[in-house]
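<goal> How does this chain fold?
<sample>
Here is the protein in question

***
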Amino acid sequence: MKQYEQKLVTAEEAVKAVKSGDWVAYSHFVMFPETLDRALAMRKGELKDVKVKASTGMHPAQVAFTDPEQESFIYHSSFFSHSDRQLGDRNLAFHIPGNYREEVPKLYQGYTGKPNVAMLKTTSMDQNGFFNFGTSCSFTHATAKMADTVIVEVNQKVPYCLGGNHEKIHISEVDYIVEGNHQPLLTLPEVTASEEDQKIASLIVEEIEDGSCLQLGIGGIPNAVGKIIADSDVKDLGCHSEMLADAYVDLYEKGKMSGAKKTTDRYKMVYTFAMGSEKLYQFMDKNPVCAAYSVDYTNDYQVIASNDRVVSINNALQVDLFGQICSESQGYRHISGTGGQLDFTIGAMLSRGGKGFICLKSTRVRQGQLISRIVPTVEGIITVPRSLAFYVVTEYGKVLIKGKTTWEIAEAIISIAHPEFRDGLVEQAQIMGIWTKTNKKI
């Protein structure tokens, strides 16, 4: 407590540690340090060329909003949230590409400049002098270890999330302590699964066996899968995921998720970050069934594959006739990021009995016009190359494209496109030389 009192300062005092030209690293997702962000933004005009890095900032980054000329701050995100997209549309947020598992320490060591100042939201200090990283473990500890100055923003409403590994930092490693606003963590609105989501989820659930180990991504389809499984006869499921979401709580409370068949971290729900409802955060608080690990563990291919029957379920924006998957941009407009989609696609492929599913609705509507999301060639950034694609699922069916020829892949992908677009896609496949006379008429 003596150290605590010595290091306790106001947010305005703490951000004086930042100098012109510094890299500043924020904690991420719902652990975004909004009190420190606001205080740093107040130094607009005083500082020059400060580069700020976040990931999926769930609060609007004030350093970007208050400095549209970018004279003092340039804001970056390694995975765009809704707020980050709004900034990106105004050229006020820039993306740092990379696979989630390697983001830290590799990203800082030799590629991006290491953080001069780390600003991290945490729990209150415990009786042993530790601040817990709450719902965002992933690379927070590695960031703190590499930073010259570490500032923690304490929030009493943050759940204390047990590890795992690297889920906390000791007061002796902290330079400044700021007591934040103590507001409850941001919650995600409940996503209502559409009719298409339900169809896609039902197709995937057919492939899930007793003892499968689940990774559910963010969005309506993964949550729909979780709800259907919760009402099914499947049992002894395990959790090894980058994200812990409400669906896992439902599965656990209905007795479907025991973790008894896992090979690694048996009986534990392993994750690296969490976002969801207040129910999820309360479930995680000091719950020994949950284990927060750093992302270089959760997203390591070999660690994922060490469990049998890994089922990876993730969303996409477009899939083309070569089997290439785009999950992070629409054309050049950046939407999200690579994240851990490729990590878990590979991990599921390497797992004994594993299956990786990429899910998407077959169409979207733009300005009142129906547009196919199955396309001849992707119109954005490729997230999963065709050589690693596994299953693709739309509301019109599921196809396994791994190990298929180019014309077999084209036929399979067209078969799950919206019927209105199939003839046009066949014509494109013929032009592209990936259609033969042995192909059946879709």
